[in-house]
Amino acid sequence: MKVKGDTVTSLQPLKKTETVVIVEENKNLDSSQNPVKLGEFDIKDGGFSIDCDYERVKNLAKNKARSIGGNTVKIIAHKLPSAWSTCHQIKFEVYKMDNIAEFQEDIIWSTDNKLTWDNFKGVPKVDKSSFFCGYIDVQFNDVKFLNGKGEVSIIPIFLLPCSYVQPLKKDKYLLEYNQLKFDLLEFYSRKMRKEFAASEIDTNEKWQKFAKSIYDKIYAEHDTDIFNLETETNFGEDYSALLPWKFKVENDLKTLTEFSTEIY
User: Fold this and answer.
1) CA angle (158 as vertex; 244, 65 as ends), nearest 5
2) Is the N end or the C end of the chain the one with fewer CB atoms within 10 Å?
3) What is the pLDDT at residue 143?
4) How many H helices and E strands in the chain?
5) Of the candidates 146, 246, 253, 121, which has an alpha carbon nearest to the alpha carbon of residue 193?
6) What is the pLDDT of residues 149-166, one digit of tens each?
7) Where are the domains of the chain?
8) Band of the pLDDT at 216, cuts 50, 70, 90?
9) What are the C-alpha distances in Å from 9 to residues 12, 170, 209?
10) Is beta strand 21-23 parallel, antiparallel or unpaired with respect to 72-79?
11) CB within 8 A of 135, min separation 6: which ones?
């Protein structure tokens, strides 16, 4: 996929863990948040595109926005896949806004991005006091397609719309329990980065051969840890059982500092 366009104003680039929101075609920017336009761009099929679903295209737009200091991508045209191209293609503008909470749907893990109850925007259910909704997003980017080299992007993401808490259960201990789940996503993202690096996955061929087996193995370990955390702490209700988990996860993260989302 090719990103082309013009930058009007360039600000200090954002960290890759800072949030960039997507404002779809059918929604408008909030003028009260003082949107400043930084540029206008297109993402089109470059002729060799093999991974160009809508999520990938939006991620490319977010990365472009981060590179010029924008926190908002406003999509102004979206061309669906057709007989001429199997790719999603978009035209978008990049803005810097004072507050993006209205459009925020996810959070990328970092030491600065600690969860608050305001992040749990889903409708509460009666089966659990709270629910953490998140995943590890893994993509292979053909950044140097012609010589076969690429890079694997591994990002732990918390999703606001499907995470919930019962209003009467909002206490700091249950929030710590959910933060532990976010920290475990980060730990297993680090393990996954280490595995991909050791396997030297930097071509599409290696990605197709080995990526799924590595992903499935690490995610199975993650799911086992989550199961044990939930059962041993009664889904965060038993704080005394939560303490050793906090100690364990904190130390686990330290063992793989060099593969942190913030620096890798």
Assistant:
1) 135
2) C
3) 59
4) 4, 10
5) 253
6) 788 999 999 999 999 999
7) 2-100, 106-259
8) very high
9) 10, 42, 43
10) parallel
11) 156, 157, 159, 185
Does the pLDDT of residue 173 top 70, yes or no? yes
Contact 175, 241 (CB under 8 A): no
- Model-level pTM greater than 0.85? yes
DSSP H or E stretch at residue 23 = strand 21-23
Alpha-helix residue ranges (DSSP H) falling in the chain: 54-67, 172-198, 204-232, 239-255
Nearest to 193, CA basis, from 142, 249, 257 = 257
Two structure tokens written together for 214: 């590595």
Q: What residue type is assigned to position 32 of the chain?
A: S
pLDDT given for residue 46 in this prediction: 67
Q: Are 25 and 76 in contact (CB under 8 A)?
A: yes
* Whether residue 50 has pLDDT greater than 70: no
